[in-house]
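Write out the 3D structure for:
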Amino acid sequence: MWLAALAILIGLAILVWSADVFIDGATALAKKFSVPSFLIGVLILGIGTSAPEMVVSVLAAIEGSPELALGNAYGSNIINIALVLGATVLISPIIIRRGIVKRDLPLLLLITVIAAWQLRDGTLSQADGIVLLILLVAVLGLQIIMSIREGYHEHEDDMVVANADSEHSNNLEHLDNSESLEKLEPSVTRGLVSLIIGMLMLVASSRAIVWGAVELATLWGLSELIIGLTIVAVGTSLPELVSSLSAARKGEHDMALGNIIGSNIFNTLAVVGLATVIAPIAADPVILSRDVMAMGVLTILLVTLCVFAFKTKRQFGRTSGATLVLFFMGYTAWLIQSVSM
């Protein structure tokens, strides 16, 4: 028992460190190609911070624990919105842009509906997994095209939103320009090294977490779904929390929100899709009535709060953040109660 618990604790610590190294390297490389901030958030931070969920879920499916993979993915989605985004805006409110409200949030909601529909009969087949992976390719292609087309014009709205951010943004732009002139090649080299080291450590630490989680589930008599929704989901969501807080503090609002949206899309399509292709999943009925429902309600709440913020003062503020955190607390209490029954 203690060995399993130690494997989880050490694995989580290495996971957070390796994800941070991976994100730093990926972001440095992306900025060298002048990629829009939201696209960096969706593709680099969103996918990069979902790498732990993907590796954990794939390994869980390979080792015959597909329900752990499902709980990890959906639990991480709930935590990303309720805890990660909620805590982020409590510290630093996020500016809501037109493209996020009109395109990205409806897309996230549609993907959540598709995930719930696939689970209507309590099973996910390999065909369902293939559909999710095809959708992933289509969604990523759409995000790349639309973000590049619109990303450079989104900031024109900032003067209407928050003039206080202009000086801070100018300083950041000046700093980025000077660094790119002075240390272009070293940054590229460090970025590549960080990517490689970060990914290798992600795999190693994720494998330790999967082993420890399955062992604890067996010893405590808990279902793998509960372990996936709690210990593993919280642990693998820490990279999203760290990167979103850092992006928000630096005034990179697009990057912070893009991280959450991109991560949830990737979790639903890639993480669940890959795990299902490896091993079809027969889900406990409670996952549809409790966890998928919570994920759906939370996504609708996020869309509603963002639309309201966009139509008023354009800031996703601390009241909205507190609402999301309270939702997380309520869901956690519900989860604990269902386990004790």
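The first helix runs from residue 2 to 32.
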